[in-house]
């Protein structure tokens, strides 16, 4: 199991994120189209009951980027957040789940790069993404399905289990392969 984290340097005097300062979606979209920003995602998985493989548990996104795709949970980091803190915040925001941070396993300490032609606000976005894996129980999947963020995910689709079929976005196939490599075949 991989547990190392990328090195983070914080210079003394770096201020905490000011509370209550938010950009509108339009302001964020304009900025995001001009800069590279960072996101953190959490991939739900569980063991396949009849084999040594794993199952990836995804929800269908209802907003761009990746609108209509089966996807993991997460979003943009705020200034001053750690990747773990951002993952826990987005997990609660997107699914209602609160978990012990020790359950999060960073899949690959090298962030992925996603370059969306049609990102936030319909403008191009360049995003660095760290992805954590979280082994979930059937009860956690049911709880998360009942509390999906209706602003980001299609509620009528819920959370769906995937082996390694075709039809998923290539980024999700890569996530599946990494989780299967680290946790499958035991």
From the N-terminal CA to the C-terminal CA, the straight-line distance is 12 Å
Number of domains: 1
On the 0 to 100 scale, the average pLDDT is 85
Shape: globular
Helix content: 10-25%
- Main beta-sheet strand count, sense and barrel state: 8 strands, mixed
Q: What is the assembly state of the chains in this entry? A: single chain
Look at the structure and name the CATH superfamily: Nucleoside Triphosphate Pyrophosphohydrolase
Task: Write the CATH fold name.
Answer: Nucleoside Triphosphate Pyrophosphohydrolase
Summing up helix and strand content along with how strands pair, one would put the structural category as alpha+beta
Low-confidence stretches: 1-9
What portion of residues belong to β-strands?
Answer: 25-35%
Count of alpha/pi helices: 4
* CATH architecture label: Alpha-Beta Complex
Count of β-strands: 8
Radius of gyration, in Å, reads: 16 Å
Helix and strand sequence: HEEEEHEEEHEH
Written overview of the protein:
The chain is of the alpha+beta class. The protein has a single domain (25-183), classed as Nucleoside Triphosphate Pyrophosphohydrolase (Alpha-Beta Complex). The protein is 24% helix and 25% strand. The chain is built from 4 helices and 8 strands, in the order αββββαβββαβα. It has helices at residues 25-32, 83-95, 138-146, 170-183, and strands at 36-47, 54-60, 70-71, 73-76, 105-106, 112-116, 125-135, 159-162. Strands 1, 2, 3, 4, 5, 6, 7 and 8 form an 8-stranded mixed β-sheet that branches. A hairpin with a 6-residue loop joins strand 1 (36-47) and strand 2. The longest helix has 14 residues, at 170-183. It is globular.
């Amino acid at each position: 199991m991989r547990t190392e984290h990328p090195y983070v340097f914080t210079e003394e005097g770096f201020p905490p994120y000011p509370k209550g300062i938010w950009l509108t979606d339009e302001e964020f979209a304009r900025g995001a189209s001009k800069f590279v920003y960072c996101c953190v995602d959490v991939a739900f998985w569980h063991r396949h009951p009849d084999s040594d493989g794993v199952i990836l548990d995804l929800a269908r996104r209802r907003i761009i980027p990746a609108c209509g795709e089966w996807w993991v949970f997460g979003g943009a980091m705020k200034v001053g957040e750690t990747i773990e803190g951002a993952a826990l915040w987005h997990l609660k925001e997107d699914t209602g789940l609160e978990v012990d941070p020790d359950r999060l396993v960073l899949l690959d300490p090298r962030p992925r790069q996603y370059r969306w032609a049609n990102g936030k606000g319909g403008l191009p976005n360049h995003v660095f993404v760290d992805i954590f894996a979280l082994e979930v129980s059937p009860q956690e999947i049911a709880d998360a399905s009942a509390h999906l963020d209706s602003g980001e995910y299609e509620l009528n689709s819920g959370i769906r289990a995937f082996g390694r079929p075709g039809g998923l976005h290539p980024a999700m196939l890569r996530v599946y392969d990494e989780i299967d490599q680290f946790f499958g075949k035991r």
